[in-house]
From TrEMBL:
It comes from Streptomyces tibetensis. It comes from the Bacteria. Gene3D superfamilies: Jelly Rolls. This is Cupin.
């Protein structure tokens, strides 16, 4: 009995073709007196926080309103595409982040809650979102300015939503979709090579088992990796990254 060829895709994806990183939430105080990260949303990826230490919260804006979900060691929170989220530092908050669709978040599947006038100008948005390379003081200062600008827009969205006006929130979603539209063909290719190919590989394996042909198990092996960049500046905090295809390469969305 001859095995069917397995679908092409990422060479060694993590389970479910997820993305992975580790975050220490920013302890910079924002204009509202809260310490934490840059509010943003994802367009096609669900994100999960697995809390490994400390305490804090994640603030979210969605069609069901404003929420603040407490975070402590052992807790788990996740949010679907379109949910604005802001990580809040409460004391040494450390999180392992799991991202749907492997490499899509690093391909720009995230939009900051900058004020409307910034969102309306693609060049201005790109300049505000960009960071200098490296992990030094210049990059830290730029990351903090970016965070502050995102909080400025976020506070307006939150105020309106709490008051029962979801118009600004919905307009932000529409603006975010306009900003990323040109990236969609690249995302489609990454999705096919990552999450879709991984699911299809499972389908091929199930077909082989149903046919009584476990020959694909002859390729069984193990892999290992360690973080390859420590303390990078992410949206929510200092980030440890893995240089694995489709996992968590340095963010390329600016």
């Amino acid at each position: 009995m001859v095995s069917e060829p397995e679908p092409a895709g990422l060479p060694h994806p993590l389970p479910g073709a997820i993305g992975l990183s580790h975050l220490s939430a920013y302890d910079w105080e924002a204009a509202d007196g809260v310490c934490g990260g840059s509010p943003h949303l994802h367009l096609v990826c669900t994100e999960a926080y697995v809390v490994t230490g400390g305490r804090g919260a994640v603030q979210t804006l969605s069609p069901d309103g404003y929420r603040e979900i407490p975070l402590e060691a052992g807790s788990l929170a996740w949010f679907t595409p379109g949910t604005v989220h802001r990580m809040v530092q409460g004391g040494d908050l450390r999180i392992t982040v799991l991202m749907q669709n492997s490499g899509l978040p690093e391909a720009g599947d995230a939009v900051f809650t900058f004020p409307p006038e910034v969102l309306a100008d693609p060049d201005r948005y790109a300049a505000a979102a960009a960071l200098p390379p490296g992990t030094g003081p210049e990059t830290a200062a730029a990351a903090r300015r970016r965070r502050d600008l995102a909080v400025e827009g976020y506070l307006g969205l939150r105020e309106a939503l709490v008051a029962g006006d979801n118009g600004p929130y919905l307009e932000f979603q529409r603006a975010a979709a306009r900003i990323v539209r040109d990236k969609v063909p690249t995302w489609q290719a990454l999705w096919r090579e990552g999450a879709l190919a991984t699911a299809e590989r499972t389908g091929a394996q199930l077909d082989a088992l149903a046919a009584g042909d476990p020959a694909y198990l002859g390729g069984a092996t193990a892999h290992e990796a360690a973080p390859t960049r420590l303390g990078g500046f992410g949206m929510c905090g200092r980030r440890d990254e893995y240089t694995l295809p489709g996992t968590t390469l340095p963010y390329q969305g600016e």
